């Protein structure tokens, strides 16, 4: 496990677990903005990526965890296999760019309004990732 500093670091790993919060109208947090340039030149073919996003579904329900979709689109474009989609049941939001076919593209967390569900969601999601990785091995 490690912290990525630049795009070259991505080559070291077969599995990447990437997370972001969502700011304003579905934007990435500032540190992701600068790292996206590294992703644009990365070769992610053969890499497996899981995503998680943090947001506030009540105050920012029109763009709940939408920043996660920006990362999803980039890693898919670069050839990664994305695992860890998450059902959108149990959430109360208006819309999210991160929902495709009724599922978030990764784990959606809301520490402001559903913090009591976070630990259980993370545990279930990690079990799901482990199962997905065993199937693909």
UniProtKB/TrEMBL annotation:
<dbReference type="InterPro" id="IPR010086">
    <property type="entry name" value="Flavodoxin_lc"/>
</dbReference>
<dbReference type="InterPro" id="IPR029039">
    <property type="entry name" value="Flavoprotein-like_sf"/>
</dbReference>
<keyword id="KW-0285">Flavoprotein</keyword>
<dbReference type="InterPro" id="IPR008254">
    <property type="entry name" value="Flavodoxin/NO_synth"/>
</dbReference>
<protein>
    <submittedName>
        <fullName>Flavodoxin 1</fullName>
    </submittedName>
</protein>
<dbReference type="InterPro" id="IPR050619">
    <property type="entry name" value="Flavodoxin"/>
</dbReference>
<keyword id="KW-0288">FMN</keyword>
<keyword id="KW-0813">Transport</keyword>
<feature type="domain" description="Flavodoxin-like">
    <location>
        <begin position="1"/>
        <end position="130"/>
    </location>
</feature>
<keyword id="KW-0249">Electron transport</keyword>
<dbReference type="Pfam" id="PF00258">
    <property type="entry name" value="Flavodoxin_1"/>
</dbReference>
<dbReference type="GO" id="GO:0010181">
    <property type="term" value="F:FMN binding"/>
</dbReference>
<comment type="similarity">
    <text>Belongs to the flavodoxin family.</text>
</comment>
